[in-house]
Amino acid sequence: MSDPHAEVSSDQLKRILKIQETPRAAMPEQASLLDLDRQGLAAFLSDEPRFRTDQVWTAINEKGLQPDEITSIPLTLRTKLNEAFPQPLDMVAQQTSSDGRTTKSLFSLDGGAQIETVLMRYDERATVCVSSQAGCAMACSFCATGQAGFERHLSVAEILEQVHWAKRTADPQRLSNIVFMGMGEPLANLDRLFEAIDRITTDIGIGARKITVSTVGMVPAMERFAAEKRQVGLAVSLHAANDDLRTELVPINKRHPIAELIETCRLVRAKTGRRVSFEWAMIGGVNDRDSDISEFARVAKAADAHVNLIPLNDTPGYPTTGSSPQRVKEFARGLRERGVNATIRSTMGDDIDAACGQLANRDR
Ligand code: SAH
Hints:
Elements: H1 10-21, H2 38-44, H3 51-62, H4 75-84, E1 90-96, E2 102-108, E3 114-121, E4 126-129, E5 133-135, H5 144-148, E6 150-153, H6 156-170, E7 177-180, H7 190-204, E8 211-215, H8 219-227, E9 233-237, H9 243-249, H10 258-272, E10 277-282, H11 290-303, E11 306-311, H12 325-337, E12 342-344
Parallel strand pairs: 4-7, 7-8, 8-9, 9-10, 10-11, 11-12
Antiparallel strand pairs: 1-2, 2-3, 3-4, 5-6
Helix pairs in contact: 6-7, 8-10, 10-11
Bound molecules: S-adenosyl-L-homocysteine (SAH).
S-adenosyl-L-homocysteine is lined by residues 136, 138, 140, 142-143, 181, 185, 214-216, 237, 279, 281, 310, 312-313, 315, 356-357.
């Protein structure tokens, strides 16, 4: 992208919206075991004794086992399951940061698209950052995924298997939190996202309050969070508090401008009882000026949101650098002085290009 500050053209916006509304762009040809609900599994196992359904369901969905690992069922059944259902993800590469805390995996999907998933181990929790699409149609200029464009939505199984990978990789630490902040716009793949979340809370046992979904601000989908009183955390990638700058950075702003977003955040708060948070990647000289502090404080207060500042991570297609650590702190202080609850996100895994905005579908 040559000029990151170029105005979004109406053609570009049309392209974004068209892709986002494509219902089934090249999904996997064949369902995986994790795509089946209990009824579907029971139908597949109709020739087996009734108790097999519960046994296989628990092994696959709760314990995250592969058919080969279910030693409590006969070998013939293991083979039958293996032959009928493909693995949703095929690991291509895995890297761990020098401090050992961050592990990033590159997976290849049916059809050849690739995604990345990141596990972050903190002292008191382990969090997985899950991808919801291969690539992304939202075209945010400073994000590596946005620079590369959209490939396709992920299936429920492809989403869930990332969580199972993280559980296995975190072991013996317990996987405690899930953030839908990997590749893709989760709210553009909403039905599969909701189904995956429901399955995570019921089968994997990670509560809705330990799950956060991040969005560029897709208002109609946010309204569904409100209507369904979803208890997962909602994070909105704001990055600018006036419409001109936000449209440059996050093109969907042209469709859903800031005033509409504020109203929707208030609706989510009113219906779910949960405040949204605003993410703000700090870009030197672009959105870290004193005027940004006062504009942002006004918007955050109007939306009743708390704020998470993200030091900008380098991406190949965006020339501007991040704000200095000093400026990030001053910016946070400025917001707090204006009555906004602001925190600074700690950067993890930037040495393996696993930090916010650095996920791209290529092997490095
Ligand atoms: N599409 C969703 C989910 C991705 S979350 C969304 O945009 O919210 C990834 C977060 O990292 C978003 O807040 C995104 O704006 C932010 N981000 C993107 N590029 C970044 C970069 N280069 N440095 C820091 N944060 C970045």
